[in-house]
Design a protein that fits this description.
about 190 residues; Tetracycline Repressor, domain 2
């Protein structure tokens, strides 16, 4: 039996605890070295309780990566709170994905692991693709409002450009951690919202 994961806001505390433990294990030990036993130990729960919530390692990993991508999207959306100007909203959404929590080494390790395994694992690939579509659609919506004179194709191209630049910035930050380069790159992303 496969348990479908509840949205983050509906997830039980135990499920979130287990998923956070899985994410910690993946970031620390790598994806291939993360076992259900390691995750149960990290979460300080029994293997039976872990198995109650997640049928197998695959289900757990998919849910952990879903949680990772949901948190990034949630933070990006939260950055829109209180903003009504379309240009400010588009810019805030772009910058919201670069909250300090998403620049930490553990998060970056998870992001890189997600990108790598998404190419070879169908279920995790679907998780990553679903996030990409949701993020891109929101970016298109915000850019369309901020750039009413732009054609649909121009807005879609700008959304793709921004996401490609953002992904490059995460990779560059993971490799070099250069704040000046990150800020310059983010300014370039923001320029594409105007």
């Amino acid at each position: 039996m496969v348990h479908e994961m509840a949205p983050v806001e509906q997830m039980s505390d135990t499920q979130e605890l287990i998923l956070d433990a899985a994410l910690a294990c993946i970031a620390r030990d790598g994806l291939d070295s993360t076992s259900l036993r390691d995750v149960a130990r990290e979460a300080d729960v029994s293997l039976g309780l872990l198995g109650y919530h997640f049928d197998d390692r695959q289900t757990l990993l998919v849910a952990a990566f879903e949680l990772t991508t949901d948190r990034l999207l949630d933070q990006s959306l939260a950055s829109l709170d209180g903003l009504s100007d379309p240009a400010e909203r588009a810019e805030a959404f772009v910058l919201g994905a670069f909250d300090e929590a998403f620049l930490e080494a553990d998060y970056l390790a998870l992001r890189l692991a997600l990108w790598a395994i998404a190419r070879t694992d169908g279920l995790i690939g679907e998780t990553e693709e679903t996030f990409y579509r949701r993020y891109r659609l929101k970016m298109i919506e915000l850019l369309a409002a901020a750039l009413p004179e732009a054609t649909k194709q121009e807005v879609e191209d700008r959304a793709t450009d921004i996401i490609v630049m953002q992904n490059g910035l995460w990779l560059d930050w993971a490799r070099h951690g250069n704040r000046t380069d990150l800020e310059r790159g983010l300014r370039r992303c923001v320029e594409r919202t105007r």
